[in-house]
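Deliverable D5.2: sample structural annotation.
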Amino acid sequence: MFLTIGTTGTPQRPASDLGFLLHKHPGKAQSYATSHGTAQVFYPEAGDERCTVALLLEVDPVALVRRGQGKGRGGAPDAALASYVNDRPYAASSLLAVALSGVFSTAMKGQCKARPELTDQVWPLTVEVPVLPARGGAALVHRLFAPLGWEVTAEPVALDPEFPEWGESRYVRLVLRGELRLADALRHLYVLLPVLDDAKHYWVSPDEVDKLLRAGDGWLAGHPDHELITSRYLARRRGLTRTAMERLELVRLAEADDSEVEAIDNAVDDGSEDSADSEDTADATGGADTAGEGRPVPLARQRREAIVAALRAAGAGRVLDLGCGQGQLVQTLLAEPAFTQVTGVDVSMRALTVAARRLRLDRMGERQAARVQLLQGSLTYTDTRLAGYDAAVLSEVIEHLDLPRLPALEYAVFGAARPATVLVTTPNVEYNVRWETLPAGHVRHTDHRFEWTRAEFRAWAHAVAERHGYGVEFTPVGLDDPEVGPPTQMAVFSRRGESAANPTAAVPTTSKETVA
């Protein structure tokens, strides 16, 4: 099997500089042993104006079959039939992709010690693959390469030129032309050659997910066919494909927010949360006492109880927990038969993994499992999956967003999803003076971007309700201190025109304000 990569240049930037990037001297022919044969690298032409490197992979079909024996799906596709005559030695496949990554490994990584300035340069490249298996035909070849900036020529290869009535084979002659970094071009080929072949010559293990994401860095998450690419590259193994898609979604969201993936996937409690908002400390009680037990009730539990009471009063059956974190509220809602569907949404896959363990989804009965689902998604983007619910809960979520991002969340929830009832809870910054363990001037959690006074929260809620056709009521959660108010403040939004009689009637409260 054969592949060439060519470029053009000028006396000021010679095309032969391609040899520096590939770490292969244009004046030498070099051979490399692979697990299934020999890879040879040579330059048919190398000058200032034109330079072409060729990779010739000579596959030993006997060794290919023998390495596949006894390995089940680990062998080549035709090895399962113990056939020594097949297309593997001649058609570009995962064998060529593996050879490409081995022979040109430093170039794929974008490294060049001798001429580091060359790695970020865009080159006029021409890639030719004489025989490429394409399950999906020339149309799929165009779909996969064109969005990456390539001009694509994919000519179907006839089954037999002597018998044109037999039609076309599943192979194409591929020519790609484009101006790209060499590292990007090599990574495109490494991923997409086996994707088009729709087969792997080796067993696809979990570490293939990391290989895919490394090679797909910077282009795969935004590719319109990233799901197809991921599924085929991972040999249609559902578990691996799901893992890769979840990680790609984090990459996409991080790119959209111009932030790091780690900053997006940060919803798992790492022990840094201040005691003022923790379930496990006696300080975080909001001044309430458990009747007859003498033990304080954690504020987080009081918050969940207030939310459940408000949802019951609103008559909600299908409920969204937006920013569900590790699933505490989802777990509480599932214990209430009145809630027929509970959907938790969070941007953090780590948090959703913890939530799935907390809920024991893998051991949950069929009827109970039908009531719950966990979705990855960003609350600042509209999402059609969130439409049609009776109620949505934003419990201690808004304060984790930068203020300029709040309008996007507002539209996604109130403008696009538009549930009949929306509950929003957030800390009351005035109450912070009552936390003995919270230093003056500090917010309750290191990730809080802001904390509002009661007046600030109500001003925001009134404006949201007015813009989107909702009424809003406010209720305290925890002891309503006569001087500084409650530790948590909750707004209950009811869409105008909906039958929602007194949605907070069942919520323990000492004061209430309504705007119609």
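Annotation notes: Confidence is low (pLDDT under 50) at residues 69-82, 270-283, 499-516. The chain has 16 helices and 15 strands.
The annotation will be released with the project's public dataset once the embargo ends.
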